[in-house]
Amino acid sequence: MNRYSAQKQFWKAAKPGANSTTDAVLLNKLHHAADLEKKQNETENKKLLGTVIQYGNVIQLLHLKSNKYLTVNKRLPALLEKNAMRVTLDEAGNEGSWFYIQPFYKLRSIGDSVVIGDKVVLNPVNAGQPLHASSHQLVDNPGCNEVNSVNCNTSWKIVLFMKWSDNKDDILKGGDVVRLFHAEQEKFLTCDEHRKKQHVFLRTTGRQSATSATSSKALWEVEVVQHDPCRGGAGYWNSLFRFKHLATGHYLAAEVNPDYVEDNQECQSSLDPDQDVARRGLHNAPEKMAYSLVSVPEGNDISSIFELDPTTLRGGDSLVPRNSYVRLRHLCTNTWVHSTNIPIDKEEEKPVMLKIGTSPVKEDKEAFAIVPVSPAEVRDLDFANDASKVLGSIAGKLEKGTITQNERRSVTKLLEDLVYFVTGGTNSGQDVLEVMFSKPNRERQKLMREQNILKQIFKLLQAPFTDCGDGPMLRLEELGDQRHAPFRHICRLCYRVLRHSQQDYRKNQEYIAKQFGFMQKQIGYDVLAEDTITALLHNNRKLLEKHITAAEIDTFVSLVRKNREPRFLDYLSDLCVSMNKSIPVTQELICKAVLNPANADILIETKLVLSRFEFEELTSGENSLEVGEDEEEVWLFWRDSNKEIRSKSIRELAQDAKEGQKEDRDVLSYYRYQLNLFARMCLDRQYLAINEISGQLDVDLILRCMSDENLPYDLRASFCRLMLHMHVDRDPQEQVTPVKYARLWSEIPSEIAIDDYDSSGTSKDEIKERFAQTMDFVEEYLRDVVCQRFPFSDKEKNKLTFEVVNLARNLIYFGFYNFCDLLRLTKILLAILDCVHVATIFPITKVAKGEETKGSNVMRSIHGVGELMTQVVLRGGGFLPMTPLAAAPEGNVKQVEPEKEDILVMDTKLKIIEILQFILNVRLDYRISCLLCIFKREFDESNAQTPESPTGSNNQEVSNVPGALDFEHIEEQAEGIFGGRKVFLTLCEENTPLDLDDHGGRTFLRVLLHLTMHDYPPLVSGALQLLFRHFSQRQEVLQAFKQVQLLVTSQDVDNYKQIKQDLDQLRSIVEKSELWVYKGQGPDETLDVATGENELKKKEEGHSKSRKPESTSSYNYRVVKEILLRLSKLCVQESILVRKSRKQQQRLLRNMGAHTVVLELLQIPYEKILEAVTMQHIFMNNFQLCSEINERVVQHFVHCIETHGRNVQYIKFLQTIVKAEGKFIKKCQDMVMAELVNAGEDVLVFYNDRASFQTLVQMMRSERDRMDENSALMYHIHLVELLAVCTEGKNVYTEIKCNSLLPLDDIVRVVIHEDCIPEVKIAYINFLNHCYVDTEVEMKEIYTSNHMWKLFENFLVDICRTCNNTSDRKHADTILEKYVTEIVMSIVTTFFSSPFSDQSTTLQTRQPVFVQLLQGVFRVYHCNWLMPSQKASVESCIRVLSDVAKGRAIAIPVDLDSQVNNLFLKSHNIVQKTAMNWRMTVRNAARRDSVMAASRDYRNIIERLQVSVSHNFLHYMLS
Predict the structure, then answer these.
(1) Kind of pairing, strands 220-224 and 306-310?
(2) Among 980, 1159, 1134, which Cα is nearest to 1063's?
(3) How many Å separate Cα 227 from the centre of its chain?
(4) Cα–Cα distances in Å, from 591 out to 139, 683, 701?
(5) Are 220 and 228 in contact (CB under 8 A)?
(6) For residue range 287-302, what is the model confidence (pLDDT) as tens digits?
(7) Which tens digit of pLDDT belongs to each residue from 1259-1297?
(8) What is the DSSP string of 414-432?
(9) How far is CA 391 from the centre of its chain?
């Protein structure tokens, strides 16, 4: 019995709303005591397990299904019988859960043992009135009576359900809830509704791991069949079982299949030695399945009884382990449960319901794994099931308008419980709509959909407004009335449940999105519909693009006009982006709606207005003069609720809002949200918005507001964001490449210095001038942040700091700062990140210069690490000042970090890390430039007397170049770049700045180490990357040099300039695509990509028919095409015979970033099939790349086949990744095979049955299908080829899968058909070779049946055709010749070489066919058109057949035998002669020593430079 004294005290103290003065410390102690009491209760109960209960004992009754205690509440009356006390089920129980167990008859007395079958009285300890079964029936549960506690003579009979000794966790017993997982098919046995009828089936899942698909509709309760229907107990192997579907209460049973047709011929054919054919028929023909599994409502039906058959040797009287593999035998039909591939939901795009039936044949593979289910999951299902029924009932009453007040209260309470249920939270008395939950319970979210709770909630939202003939119960417009507040609250709760149910769960999002149109109608009535829609669409690109149309945007715009609330502007801005990336489709819609002149009244206009300021001028006399001055000031103009124009300066608005003026505060808030909307409309260079808005909000106006300290921080942050997306991130600004690997020899300077080094060279002076004040503001603001004692202590200011840092990051990325400016900015950024105030840690006095130059900066950095880590250890993670500061209070021992948990602060630091990464890249580029500068100067000096210049022809020989260069001098100068002892004249003074912090890297190091201690993974990762780069600077430079490409020849220079010009033009055209791209009229509105002349002509025709002149569009399409063709020609050198790649030009294109620009072009919607072609060429013959491919890539392309159609290109891509460089990749084979099987019939198209086989024959007869690359026939051929490649290399997993997909019978039937074409034969026989012949495990069917010999006879026919049709080579069937000489020879060789064929006895009975085969192959050998590779294949086949004939004593005609022997003798002599000639040639060949003159191309230059730097690096390490 459980004790409750400590728990009772805790409940009393923690009761919400109670007038308790209990402090938090005492409450925690009481909580701890209550938990301790619970654990003691559990321990005591375990000790008492197995003891005999005696009359007079105090017991508790725990309801197993709900895990709640039967409890009497003596303070409340029963619901129906008012003179009785209420009996409930309580989760924790209390003292009302204690019952005395007393005898009903006098034959038992106190102290006697309680016996099964006794009648007893259950008397509550604290109530004194026995437990009573009332005669009053429950209203909500007809047929059930109320149980209460009243003073009467009521007895209860003890009936055994299960012995306590049988209640073990590791055995299967009655009452257990399990899932039945079909091991071979990898699917769960499920019962669900389809077309208003219950079906039992195996459910396909789209998950990577099938066992993770835990549907609530796959839960089955085990019942052990006993004579007593109330009895359960442990399950034995000889027990009988029933399986009750938990969600519906129906039982698993078998009934006659209505599609079953008796077929005597099929029954007779089962006598054939090939028994597997009849079994496999079950997977293909529904008429062969005599019984199918169904669900029946009654448990007493004999058709619902099953037996369990073990997969291992077990005794019938042994217990069934809970985690067993079993086969199910249906008792009354004596058949075995058998899976099929017959879909129930055939009409669906992707069927997932596979029919399951029974078969007389017992098969090993038809086994189910019993997967136990936790009781908590079962209880969740019970709650969800009951909630769904209640919501459905209430919705019906709401529709009719017959709902009572009590029912309204109960549904409100139920909806609140559902909110806590789906979020996993606990109800502590607060308003459920105000509670925020971070992560809902995913399994419960799934229950909400599967148990139709979401469906019932939508019914509940529709019901009050549905007209059933007498008008609706209430209208939407009336919801705002106070009389209908309860119904408004119900609607708000419904939307809150929907919001939590969809959070981070794709399937629920798609389900709820189907009701998008309905939810949109309820926007603006204060029922949280708009909140739910926004949460649903937030960062959900797929739903945004699918469901947001002009109508939805207009609705939101009208709501803005109607309510003038900023949140609706926020909803609009949320529709523009997903995961911080713009969605051009919705951006365009919002631009057209918001910027429409008809909607100008919803926007606040911004203007610069001249204002006159008066101030007093102090003079030496007594009187002062008032002086006036005109100054421009920012004013806002807007329309109020009366449509009257109002205006006020932004400073006044801010001041009045700060003083508490509500109207001004609302206007300012609305304006801020408007700015945020504008920023998101302009995001990612959306010129529809930029061109329209930038005229009103120019750079000077925004800068004025950004820098105005009278404005609130959040408003200044919004202006800062708008500056970035409207003015900075737009043309002509382009992100610079910090490290340039393609260099022109002629542009390398003779001298270089930090002050005048500009790596970008792209930002023009006039553009820099335009943003000069903005750059000054950024730098001044960041310096101001550094001056604060705690830079991130002000949460409001942090918003502005983040935006300013982000603006600085983009200004840097766009090349507005030269290297010297970047180094200065770096010190400011490091000071912001520095964990300890600089003045506190390091004194102002610098280290002596002599000390500073000793050793390398790397060594000083290492010393700094030791110093810093010592402080960390000594202070337990804090930082100790090296020199105490007198002015600091209490010595300023420890820095407080209020920002550590603030995500915005973490993101700000992350942006600074990105800036530092960029600056390190610029430093790397500078060092590369320095080394090239050194080398060029040395090179020019060494060739000063030589008339030829370095830009001359590559063919000129300069043999004295290596000796002329002074490598020691180069080493001395190069060392100065890394801050070592050896420096050269130009760089000696620029040593320290490259350390970024003027402290030898110590500050930089301290900052990074501090950042690695943050609890924010992206920040830690970025800091670690910088740390690794800091300690590998020399290696970084060496690695970068391997990629440098020096362009010396005039042709290279011309190519460089042309590529640069093309890429700049292409980049500009692409980023303005929304202004010129021609959109199709289809639903997808995809770009009609111009890949050839026909496509371009179509576009031009489409443009000419358009109303508006399309000259710009036509011009841009033509330019894009010309640029792409020009770049393509650079990559490949094409001639009539060969197509050769130009690797140097490909490398140049990569170094100049051509691929990134083309990828941006591909972001414009286009025909997705080209994606597969491109990907195929990327992965083609690249073994390493294919080996590292992600499973998601395979899933994507298989899904493309399902959604975009069966196109050959998708299959070709999958073939490419499975086999590369002649080697198969097992990992890719398994992935592709698994995805193909999961996709099912949408992808796997086979012509197995009679009707579809005729379709295949008809396609093979049609010459058009044979020639069309994208025909269904070619798709089928490539699919079979893909399966063949997947089984290549003896992959057991894929072989087993393919055996069931394409049986041997079907292969033979197709290949021997008279209309079968060579292309189909090649695919099928190649598949047969890898899947059935060249296998890891013996396929007995191949060697014992007649299938192979039927094929050999067909091979003979094709061999004869090939040999007879060779007179005219112009009309020869080369595909048939390839089939015979390669595919046929390969399978014959493999078949007879297999060790399994040696054991076969069928060869003795098939000797005539074998001899004919040898004769045919020998005849092919003498064809004069054979290529060397084909001849080798045929000869190999002859050798194998000859060896088999000798080994098996098969009689071969004498003349054939002698010809074969002569052939081998002749081949042997040719091999010997060739080998001798080769040896003689090698022996007599004169050794020629030739010294190749050093050419002046970039490769030789770079190689010498790399040797120099490498030597320098080794020398430094040794010294």
Answers:
(1) unpaired
(2) 1159
(3) 53
(4) 58, 12, 22
(5) no
(6) 457 889 999 998 788 8
(7) 888 876 677 788 888 999 999 999 999 988 888 888 888
(8) HHHHHHHHHHT----SS-T
(9) 35
